[in-house]
């Protein structure tokens, strides 16, 4: 049993698929903890909970777009185990479309889920963590929180916003026993691109080759658990693509030249 996880209650949003599901299954292998699994699709959460036979697993369906209920969801989560030690704020939605063709309501939807819902839940949970004497918030952002690409402007904006918010929020709650970590995945083999919204709000229904060739979710989960245990304030997890974030920081001129020549072709 992992001593870090022993007896802890971990709440995972976006748990019905992708990174969230992979993390739940990996935590189940380790055992010793209690899981609260959240996403919109209750039937998928039920299936996942049934697979988690080595831990106590509870389901709490929710839709982050309806973030005004964040305090209510938190109260419901507390009924399962009486405390929340770690919130893995993972739920989100992708977007792919030219900015001028993207409807305002689609941009607003992306921000409600990826930013406002994420933040509202963290605030509600942190208030309870402060009462219990501490806790940990793990925010799943993206390498695109450090730069952007054509047709991904809205998605990248929502991930940039998480950086801006949580880097300040971390310092506000640090002395109150709350750890805040931002984790930025690269290409992970999930259905996030498949379920991304086009400019008119319909689903893309097509995965990207980069996503399909990305890191497996079980591999990502094992790396994420190590990051969580380390307490590092920020970490990239992925393949060579995560080097783009460092390259852009240190060699911005060369970064944009290379990206326009080989990647930013529209």
UniProtKB/TrEMBL annotation:
A matching Pfam family: adh_short
Keywords: Oxidoreductase
Gene Ontology CC: membrane
One Gene Ontology MF term: oxidoreductase activity
Family annotation (InterPro entries): NAD(P)-bd_dom_sf, Sc_DH/Rdtase_CS, SDR_fam
Family membership noted in the UniProt record: Belongs to the short-chain dehydrogenases/reductases (SDR) family.
Entry protein name: Oxidoreductase
Organism (species): Thermaurantimonas aggregans
């Amino acid at each position: 049993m992992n001593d870090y996880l022993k007896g802890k209650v971990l709440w995972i949003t976006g748990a019905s698929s992708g990174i969230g599901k992979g993390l739940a299954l990996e935590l189940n292998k380790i055992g010793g903890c209690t899981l609260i699994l959240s996403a919109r699709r209750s039937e998928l959460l039920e299936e996942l909970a049934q697979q988690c036979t080595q831990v106590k697993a509870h389901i709490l369906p929710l839709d982050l777009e309806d973030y005004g209920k964040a305090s209510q969801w938190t109260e419901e989560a507390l009924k399962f185990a009486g405390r929340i030690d770690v919130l893995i704020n993972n739920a989100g939605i992708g977007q792919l479309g030219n900015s001028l063709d993207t409807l305002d309501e689609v941009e607003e939807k992306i921000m409600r889920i990826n930013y406002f819902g994420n933040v509202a839940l963290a605030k509600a949970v942190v208030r309870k963590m402060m009462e219990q004497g501490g806790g940990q918030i793990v925010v799943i952002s993206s390498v695109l929180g450090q730069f952007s690409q054509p047709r991904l402007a809205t998605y990248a904006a929502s991930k940039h916003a998480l950086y801006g918010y949580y880097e300040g929020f971390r310092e506000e709650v640090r002395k109150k026993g709350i750890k805040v970590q931002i984790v930025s995945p690269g290409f992970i083999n999930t259905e996030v691109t498949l379920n991304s919204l086009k400019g008119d709000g319909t689903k893309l229904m097509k995965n990207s080759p980069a996503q399909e060739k990305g890191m497996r979710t079980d591999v990502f989960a094992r790396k994420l658990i190590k990051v969580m245990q380390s307490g590092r304030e920020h970490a990239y997890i992925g393949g060579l693509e995560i080097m783009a974030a460092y390259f852009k920081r240190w060699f911005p001129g060369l970064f944009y030249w290379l990206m326009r020549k080989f990647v930013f072709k529209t």
